[in-house]
Specification:
It is found in: Cell membrane. The chain is mainly α. It contains 24 helices and no strands.
């Protein structure tokens, strides 16, 4: 029994030794140069029971960001590059800078002003003027003396500033030395998990890149913040000189030439496609007029009743009560007509977004090539600030509600397209294969299988589109759009806080009502499924 136990222990010790040798070989492979040091350091880190660092990497402390770059630890590189630059700025301010330069310049200006007032007092003939100029000169002279004292005090602190910078640099170096091995050990763990995504060893390319970054960043920042009058080239980009080099003398700037060219191109496109743009505006106006007649032309009790019943049927009694309360708030404060105009604007935009967005989303969901081609356009539509694309909208379509709806469509259509495509791609292939095996045609597969299964994602996209279109209400008022956005714009122009807040609450209630109705309808449809 004793011999068997001893044999087991020997075998276990042998296995541990084999595992340790394999680990050491792996660390050597990862670290490359100075592999023995990192083997010992990583073992110390693994065996440590305290969070206090128990290793010190001298080269990391001495070389700082250069060591981090050579080992591809870029997070540590950028962190300590910034910290060391801050320390060097303090050292430079104390060693060769002039901390009191700004105060000294201010004192010289005050002294010059005091001397000017004294000269005017000497030239004055009336006693009242002499006394006034003299008193002003005395006051400014006191301020100048105070500024000179502060400048001298700041200059006397130069040694203290330099010592502070040296202490900061020493602390940063020590921190890098104590924590470098721990950070590198974490990178080793990531390398063991996925060698293809984590760099290993000491790379000459990374070392050179780190040196270039340090040389390009650190000297310029230290120079800029320690020299009293730095080069004008560092303070402002020389766009005039660059434009002159590219275009030639007397040809204006790149900005003026490019802006003039773009304006000419837009004007030419607007003139060439005038009939097309007018047709688009006419189509949008048709949809808007139909909704406006239904919401504003119909008796208000009928409209309110239809909306409340729709809320009840779609989302239940609680949402219906909230909808009735919101509509009562809008009506009692005199916002009924403009609120219904807002609903018409948003409804027209959402209707057009859904009519064009869902088919496009279905197409993009079934064709990866089409989606890849359209994705940059969708990103541009969703990320470009609305104020930017209002400019070409005005140039091509004019001002008023229809152009405002077109601007809203640009901003509100991407969610329904993206989420429809996402829902279509999320339909399991096994279900589609089963439907085809039972003889379903492409149209039946789309109508009876793919769209019903993608409906939750599609409805989420519709909901997002509604809210994004409603968020454009105030912005489209800048190009002549009506509705509650116009009320908010007027309140902003005249700083009318009360009317602005009341109108804002009206928009908020409209958004909440639309969101609750759509969400309620979606939940009920989901329960049916």
């Amino acid at each position: 029994m004793t011999d068997a136990t001893t044999e087991v222990k020997v075998t276990a010790a042998s296995d541990i030794e084999v595992d340790r040798e394999a680990l050491d070989q792996s660390i050597h492979e990862f670290a490359g140069p100075n592999g023995d040091y990192y083997v010992n350091a990583f073992h110390k880190i693994h065996d440590a029971t305290s969070p206090v660092p128990n290793t010190f990497n001298l080269w990391a402390a001495v070389l700082g960001p250069f060591w981090s770059a050579s080992r591809a630890i870029w997070g540590m590189f950028w962190t300590f590059l910034i910290l060391e630059i801050i320390a060097w700025v303090q050292i430079g301010r104390g060693a060769w800078g002039n901390p009191g330069a700004d105060m000294a310049e201010r004192a010289e200006r005050q002294q010059a002003r005091a001397n000017e007032l004294l000269e005017r007092a000497g030239e004055a003939t009336e006693k009242a003027d002499i006394d006034r100029f003299t008193k002003l000169a005395e006051n400014i002279q006191k301020a100048a003396d105070s500024s000179f004292e502060k400048a001298a005090a700041a200059q006397s602190e130069a040694v203290g500033i330099m010592i502070t910078g040296l202490l900061m640099l020493l602390v940063f170096k020590l921190v890098q030395g104590f924590y470098a091995d721990r950070v590198y050990e974490k990178q080793y763990s990531n390398w063991r998990t996925d060698p293809s995504s984590t760099e290993s060893g000491r790379s000459t390319r990374n070392t050179v890149m780190g040196a270039v970054l340090v040389a390009a960043i650190a000297p310029l920042i230290v120079y800029k913040f320690t020299v009293n009058a730095s080069l004008p080239l560092l303070d402002a980009f020389p766009e005039d000189q660059v434009s002159e080099m590219i275009l030639g003398p007397g040809e204006g700037t790149l900005f003026s030439n490019l802006a003039s060219w773009m304006e000419a191109q837009i004007d030419a496109a607007a003139a060439a496609g005038g009939d097309v743009f007018d047709g688009i505006v006419s189509g949008v106006r048709t949809v808007l007029d139909a909704l406006t007649i239904a919401l504003i032309g119909s008796p208000w009790p009928v409209v309110m009743l239809v909306i409340c019943v729709t809320a009840w049927r779609a989302a239940g009694p609680r949402v219906a009560i909230f909808t009735a309360s919101s509509l009562a708030y809008i009506a009692l404060l005199g916002y009924w007509d403009v609120a219904m105009e807002t609903v018409a604007l948003v409804g027209a935009a959402v209707l057009l977004c859904v009519v064009f967005g869902i088919p496009l989303g279905i197409w993009f969901g079934k064709s990866k090539r089409a989606y890849r081609a359209a994705e940059p356009v969708l990103d541009l539509m969703q990320t470009l600030p609305a104020f930017v694309y209002l400019i070409p909208i005005i140039a091509f379509f004019g001002t008023g509600n229809p152009p405002g709806i077109l601007a809203t469509i640009i901003f509100g259509m991407p969610p329904v397209i993206r989420l429809t495509a996402l829902g279509m791609r999320g339909v399991p292939d096994s279900i589609k294969e089963a439907a085809v095996a039972f003889g379903a045609s492409k149209w039946q597969l789309l109508k009876d299988v793919e769209i019903p299964l993608a409906l939750p994602s599609i409805m989420t996209g519709v909901n997002q589109t509604i809210l994004m279109c409603l968020s454009m209400v105030v912005i489209i008022s800048l190009i002549g759009g009506g509705g509650l956005g116009k009320e908010i714009l007027e309140a902003l122009q005249y700083a009318a806080k009360g009317p602005g807040l009341l109108g804002g609450f009206a928009i908020l209630f409209l958004a909440m009502v639309m969101d609750r109705i759509v969400q309620g309808a979606f939940r009920r449809e989901d329960e049916k499924l």
